[in-house]
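Repro case for the chain-ordering regression, as requested:
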Amino acid sequence: MAEILVLVDHLDGTVRKPTLELLTLARRLGEPSAVFLGPGADAAADTLGRFGAHKVYVVDAPEVGELLVTPAVDALTQIAGSTAPAAILLPSGPDTKETAARVALRLESGLITDAVDITAGEDGRPVTEQSAFAATHQVTAHITRGIPVITVKPNATAPEPAPVTAELEKWDVTFGPASAAAKVFSHTPRERGDRPELAEADIVVSGGRGVNGAENFALIERVADTLGAAVGASRAAVDAGWYPHSHQVGQTGTQVSPQLYLAAGISGAIQHRAGMQTSKTIVAVNKDKDAPIFELADYGVVGDLFQVLPQLVEEIDRRRS
Amino acid sequence: MKHVPDATADRTFTEDGTTDRGSVDSLLSELDEYAVEQALRIAESGPDVEICYLTVGPDDAKDALRKALAMGGDSAIHVSDEDIEGSDVFGTSLVLAGAIERHGFDLVLCGMASTDGTMSVVPALLAERLGVPAVTHLEELAVADGTVTGRRESDFASVRVRSALPAVVSVTDRSGDARYPSFKGIMAAKKKPVETLGLADLGIDPGQVGRTAARSAVDTATRRPPRTKGELVSDDGTGGIGLAAFLTAKKFA
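-- result from build under test --
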């Protein structure tokens, strides 16, 4: 069966959900093998095997943490060069898209980024679906040359287990000259709460200009916590300093595609819509009945978010008790 | 610089799956203005800096160069050749790298992505082709003593990075507001030199670029069906209760 390489996205050995989605998609094309960079592969192997990774290629070298992008390029190119996989899948992100592009260039392969679905075409080769032009269009495409290299957005599919025993295989990668790479000289981890990650959350609750102040984001957080959601913010709210940039939803921020997107006090400028309109269900609360966000909303409330949201939380609490 | 269809207009595809450039006005990709701004700030912070803008595209792509030149800078290169039409990121980066090498460079500054394709991989491909480091998605950067340092924000960390020059850098829309061209700048831009080059000038075989060399192909491009108009209610004092009922019915609460 054709081997499919999947680059593992992990935090110190804890495999992130988009990787499990990739393993699930990879099984439509062949037999997935995981490529794991950095320390922690032993801890990750169980999870990777549970989602169908027959092999885990492990590259644990100091270069992985010290240099930007290029160690992953060297690793994937060399592993692909000797295993000749039928496709290489990576989670979509700024670094991984660059990794994918460079790998494709070195392998003389084609590249598709930000796929939202992959299926096997008639010849078994991958056919992708993407969103284009601020998610107003759907595009299906395929790669015409070399080993298809594809990056996939979070929430493209639900992870489905398919347990196997993953076999670990250590790889010694020859890294290119460090002079051809940017060096990381300081790394400050972001403080992380208990909320789910924005890009991969099933529910996102976002606040915009209408939230009107950093202190008022506590209300957005309260709604998020009631629903078990991640917190997002519009560009306007982020630029005003009300919420950290890492939570910006939009074309130049995080692009989300959750089961439910709740927009509060967000008018819905095109850049914001580009980042959220593939959400399955959209709910909006806004004072302005003409706000463009209502064109997308499955359920809209024209009203003051400071009235509507506290009542929403109370009502959910009441229904639960 | 990339000349792209206006991102706020209703963009669409042609029958062959490429961007329809005829149906809406094009302009300088907004995200490239941040790269122009950073180039101008570097020039203003020290002596001996020459800024040359580069674009690949049909005739009207020169408008993007004029916009950048009106903001500031010295000269521009326009690579135009009908054989380039339909190029993917590999063809485009080959042409860009050829023009960059021909001109010579210490620093290649790019926007984080174009507002049409939004792949954001051309800077990395340029670095790969030019054999120099890539420092991408910077929210802050400084150039001094042959080194570029910057800050980039990932999902989990704030990371400071450093690279020797020459290098390729891309900047985000948070790197600093781009200036507006002044009237004086617009007038001055008309006199700044814009060199036009073709594939032959870059020694690139037409077979390496364009639609025939593209490594991926679009099968279908269709407009997403408009979302079914949902329920819109005015808050009469029970808006939150109604919303809770909707979310419960959908099993979100």
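Ordering looks correct now. Chain B is about 30% helix and 25% strand.
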